[in-house]
């Protein structure tokens, strides 16, 4: 794997903070001429996601002649934040941006985003108080809301039940019924499936030995965390993390339960028995494809748990049409449209977080699946790792973990090395 030089790491790390500091200056609707042409960066190029977003945008424009166009600009998931900050630095900032939880602290504290409270609260029929306070915390600073918590989505396990049965393995539903849905059982079934069918056992989607924060869907079951609650102490060298990463390393290199480095397998194309991801990916399932199920994350040594990915939508201050963008954001996230979007992106609205409500717009998912994975997950889940200065931290963690992805790796030594890299950053 390619490891960036120290100079390269420092440059990449400084980029986000520097760009956001610059983008905090200027902007607003002052000096803009003619109807607004709005652009919002999004992580997904999925046709179903974009179709729904465009339908809502078209509905908004019917009554807003001052907005000539609303474009949704998909950026590649794996380098989304880097591409976004490059656009901002190059003077091509979007009017609105999808923001991941891992970069939320930097965006929110930078002053680069427009406060949204007044616009949302004044929007007719918006019902701001219906938004769960817990979902707002990551996006607030100084009592102001700087991004709307567009999606609060727990991770679950999509299962190719045809492939598991072909391999003679019990399905997660059967294991859950027997009280045996654990990581030990899941990895054993994944390894057996790989050996029997030649297909991949389990894929942690969007990890690919780069997106290390997605491994929190695994290590949280051991009670491990990347850093302490106050963000000041490294958690990678803790016994819980060593145990979790030892189990993961064995699953990859000894049991072949997960595809190894340099190997890819697309669950939704039928190439894997299980994948850890969020319900927004359900749209990739084909009606005439394999039989499938959705299960909660397996229990770890510390018992049942849930991990949540959050995404917010913010309005860039540098937008020439910031007020128009905020007004569209209020429309996009009002109760009616929030319910439509809930088929892909679990809403923060308390009134909509019921199995019955979500089932109306999630025809591929059963109410019990929505209850166990989505609603229960939101209630009890921990958010994926996020920290101020995340760009530099993320680069350092990724580089520090690179030696782990070899068959003969010394797990504890590698994790000690990660802490040696990031503890000075956490202590700032």
TrEMBL record:
The keyword Isomerase does not apply. Residues 1-26 form the signal peptide. The keyword Signal applies. It comes from the Bacteria. Pfam families: SBP_bac_1. Keywords: Signal. Transmembrane segments: none annotated. This is Sugar ABC transporter substrate-binding protein.
């Amino acid at each position: 794997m390619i490891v960036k030089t120290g100079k390269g790491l420092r440059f990449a790390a400084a980029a986000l903070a520097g760009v956001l500091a610059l983008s905090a200056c200027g902007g607003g609707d002052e000096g803009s001429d003619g109807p607004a042409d709005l652009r919002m960066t999004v992580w997904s190029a999925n046709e179903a996601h974009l179709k729904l977003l465009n339908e809502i945008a078209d509905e908004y424009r019917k009554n807003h002649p001052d907005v000539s166009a609303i474009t949704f600009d998909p950026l590649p998931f794996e380098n989304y934040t880097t591409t976004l900050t490059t656009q901002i630095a190059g003077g091509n900032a979007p009017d609105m941006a999808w923001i991941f939880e891992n970069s939320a602290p930097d965006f929110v504290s930078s002053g680069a985003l427009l406060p949204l409270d007044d616009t949302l609260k004044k929007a007719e029929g918006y019902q701001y108080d219906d938004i769960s306070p817990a979902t707002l915390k990551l996006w607030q600073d100084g009592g102001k809301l700087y991004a709307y918590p567009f999606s609060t989505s727990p991770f679950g396990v999509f299962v190719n039940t045809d492939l598991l049965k072909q391999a003679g393995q019990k399905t997660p539903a059967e294991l859950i019924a027997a009280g045996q849905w654990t990581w030990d059982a899941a990895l054993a079934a994944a390894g057996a499936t790989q050996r029997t069918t030649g297909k991949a056992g389990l894929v942690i989607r969007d990890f690919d030995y780069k997106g290390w924060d997605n491994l929190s869907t695994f290590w949280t079951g051991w009670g491990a965390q990347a850093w302490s609650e106050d963000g000041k102490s490294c958690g990678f060298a803790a016994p819980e993390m060593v145990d979790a990463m030892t189990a993961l390393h064995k699953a990859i290199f000894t049991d072949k339960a997960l595809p190894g480095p340099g190997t890819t397998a697309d669950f939704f194309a039928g190439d894997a028995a299980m994948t850890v991801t969020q319900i927004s990916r359900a749209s990739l399932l084909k009606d005439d494809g394999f039989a499938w199920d959705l299960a909660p994350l397996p229990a770890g040594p510390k018992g049942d748990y849930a991990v949540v990915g959050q995404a917010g939508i913010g309005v860039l201050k540098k937008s020439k049409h910031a007020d128009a963008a905020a007004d569209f954001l209020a429309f996009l996230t009002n109760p009616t449209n929030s319910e439509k979007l809930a088929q892909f992106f679990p809403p923060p609205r308390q009134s909509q977080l019921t199995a019955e409500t979500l089932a109306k717009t999630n025809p591929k998912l059963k109410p019990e699946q929505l209850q166990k994975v989505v609603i229960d997950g939101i209630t009890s889940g921990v958010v994926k790792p996020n920290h101020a200065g995340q760009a530099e931290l993320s680069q350092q963690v990724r580089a520090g973990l690179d030696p782990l992805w070899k068959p003969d790796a010394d797990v504890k030594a590698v994790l000690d090395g990660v802490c040696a890299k990031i503890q000075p950053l956490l202590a700032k």
